Known about the structure:
Layout: E1 14-21, E2 26-33, E3 44-48, E4 51-54, H1 55-66, H2 82-101, H3 108-131, H4 139-148, H5 154-180, E5 184-185, H6 190-202, H7 215-220, H8 224-227, E6 230-234, E7 237-240, H9 241-248, H10 263-285, H11 292-314, H12 324-333, E8 343-351, H13 354-365, H14 370-377, E9 386-388, H15 390-393, H16 397-401, E10 408-416, E11 419-431, H17 443-469, E12 472-474
Antiparallel strand pairs: 1-2, 3-4, 3-12, 5-6, 6-7, 8-9, 8-11, 10-11
Amino acid sequence: MKSVFNKSALSFLGLLMILCCSCAVKQQVETDTVVKPAPEPANMVAKIGDYVITKEEFEKELKAELVPRRDDYNVNTEPADANTVLMKMIAEKAMVIEARRQNYLEDKSIQDSLKRFKGKKLVNLLLGAYLKDKLTVTETEIDEKIKTNPKLKRTSAKAMLQRAKAGKLINQFYSEIYKKLNVQKLSVNFPKAVRIHRRLLLSPKKPQKMRWIRVNQVRNELTPEEKNIVLATYDNGKVTLKDWFNALCQFAPPSRPKDLNTTKGVERLLDGVLRTPIFVAEAKSRGLDKDESLLKQVREREDRHLLTKIRTEKLSDIKEPISEEQIVAYFSKNKKEFGTPETLKITQIWCQDIETARKVKAELDSGKDFKSVRQEYSLEKKGSPFNTYPNYEGVLFKDLWKAEPNEIVGPVKGFYRKGFKWRIVKILEKKPGEVKEYTSDMKGSVKMRMRNEQRETILKKYRNELLKKYPYEIYAERIKDIDPLNIP
């Protein structure tokens, strides 16, 4: 892999002139002091701006690139190329940097989402610290709980007792903070909430098939004055009608309160809405908003939002195929991708490690029965023959396809749950793919493929532009020997 280095990397050299005086002699001593930058993490494989890509992050992404796309039968899957994957990761960091420069973080929907995310994390930090060492349960309490339900296991009984105790403690804690922060509910504004709720629900500006209030209505149909209607105040804070509606929209429509046409219903929902900002205010008063882990998680969440938004912006002008002729022409150039896929009928033995796989293969080669060997060694004792396709096996399919019916292949790697395992595979049947002719019912899938191809072309071009704009560094020697199939 070619290593790319930032030509503008800084090196620091300081020159310190120290003048020393004595009673008879004035002596000048020159000392060169080299100020070295902080040592770079040994697991860093690339950096751009203030973003660092670690070896662990890179390996995770490289491994993910191997996972086959099961909705795409006939796309030729090539082995994940380390350089290509890393360059894409760097380019996506550049997209985030660009999005920050364009102030995309000020987007209202992003801000609302980040506020909810940070609020939940702060509440979890606060309650975790508060409940620490308070959820002790005695063996006597567990015995008493089991008496009420003899079928309960001790672990389940203990968990139930801890949950009940946590609930009581949290409610007590909340009441204390509620009083400390001088919470006041402005009931005079509750009728306004009832009227505005009824308007959004029954008379949306855009007709809706399903009758429930949506987030975009809260954002676009409330006036600034309505958004700022105060429903409750507390020391250095308030809950507005916008906060109330945003909380309502977090409920799935079927589970939303049915009594919001009454002031009591408005207040009942407000009581629930208040808990998060009250706990958040307490968490901030304790300095938990400075927690390094929290700040890192918020930063990562910002990056995900920014990457999504800048992608959406770049793809907003994407053009749809405008004619049947374009669709048919694309199909004609890519017939194989729309035909019947190559198919293998296989049965297999999943092995704990390569040594087990070699032992299994040797026993099968010596004539032992496949089923009995599977019962002895396989991680999955039960298993019937099944069909597999290129989109199920990804880069691993070609090695299986080389074999003939009744041939035993292995040891070879396979996708096992969230990772890779060694396996021995018996090929039972082998069926070549078939090319189909175009029919009108293929139009949707062809258009989707064309759209995806156009999307990737646009994004690839944009990523390349940003890589020229933002300097970056790659530590090629740290990734040159990585084999994605050997990543744990």
